[in-house]
Amino acid sequence: NSRLVVKAPTMLAEEAETGDVQVSYPIQIYIFNQENSCVATSTIATAEESLNIPLLEGTYQVDAVGGASSSHFSLPTQEEATPQSELILKLGGSMPDLMAASHAITLVKGGTNQLALAMKRKVMLLEEVNIIRVPDDIKAVSVTLVPLYQHLLLDGSYSNTTESQTIELADEDGDGQWESTEQVYLLPASQDGATITVNMTDEDDAVT
User: Fold this and answer.
1) For the chain, percent helix, then strand, then coil, each to nearest 5?
2) pLDDT exceeds cutoff 80 at 15
3) For residue 35, is it left (φ>0), alpha (ψ between -120 and 50) or beta?
4) Percentage of residues of the chain with pLDDT beyond 70
5) Mean pLDDT within 29-47
6) Rounded to an integer, what distance in angstroms lies between the CA atom of residue 102 and that of residue 156?
7) CA dihedral defined by 20, 43, 89, 168, rounded to 10 degrees?
8) Contact partners, residue 86, CB within 8 Å, separation at least 6
9) Are 123 and 97 in contact (CB under 8 A)?
10) pLDDT per residue over 84-129, tens digit each?
């Protein structure tokens, strides 16, 4: 047998030169053989952990998803997982700061290979939505973004290109300035030129 040592990353691959960046944990690890059968799964819970996995010699695909805890997602089991398995967000759950990496690695008989995961952020952060000078007779305001991807796959790609996301705003000071109340992570737009629609409901429940 050979051994694969998977080390936890300390910063995102594309942001390594800009300083220390927080990586999302736990990191779910899925290892696939050349027939796309999942031969091992594991979890890296913290930056201090690493994995030491015995495997037969051969070529494997190592897929890693950071921030995908079982409390947020219905995770595929080893028996059902493929590189194209979807991470299904649980009902009522909010999208976390998801990151992913996918590496091909070849193990030789009796050897030990080390793999440092090169994680990349797979979501966008909507920090704030602010709409000013809203008429006094408006009692509810929201914004809808479309089209977005619906699911992240284990190999770091996406599926379902027609998802939408609606964000409710609040006029907490009663001054006609409606704002989002918290930051929101979203999967990215599935095409260029995504549309943002502003929805307003007046006192007669008419939506514009």
Assistant:
1) 5, 50, 50
2) no
3) alpha
4) 94
5) 96
6) 7
7) -30
8) 151, 152, 153, 159
9) yes
10) 999 999 988 889 999 999 999 999 888 889 998 988 999 999 999 9
27-59 core/surface letters (b: 16 or more CB in 10 A; e: else): bbbbbbeeeeebebbbebeeeeeebebebeeee
Spatial separation of the C-alpha atoms in residues 40 and 202, rounded to whole Å? 55
Q: Binning pLDDT at 50, 70 and 90, where does residue 201 land?
A: very high
Minimum mean pLDDT range among 10-19, 57-66, 150-159: 10-19
Contacts 24+ apart (CB under 8 A), 7-10: 7/50, 7/114, 7/115, 7/116, 7/117, 8/44, 8/46, 8/47, 8/48, 8/49, 8/50, 8/117, 9/47, 9/101, 9/116, 9/117, 9/118, 9/119, 10/47
Q: How far apart, in whole angstroms, are the C-alpha atoms of residue 139 and residue 40?
A: 53
- Hey, what are 15's tokens? 């942001």
pTM beyond 0.85, yes or no: yes
* Integer Cα distance of 140 and 127 in angstroms: 20
Angle at 167 between CA 170 and CA 180, to 5 degrees: 40
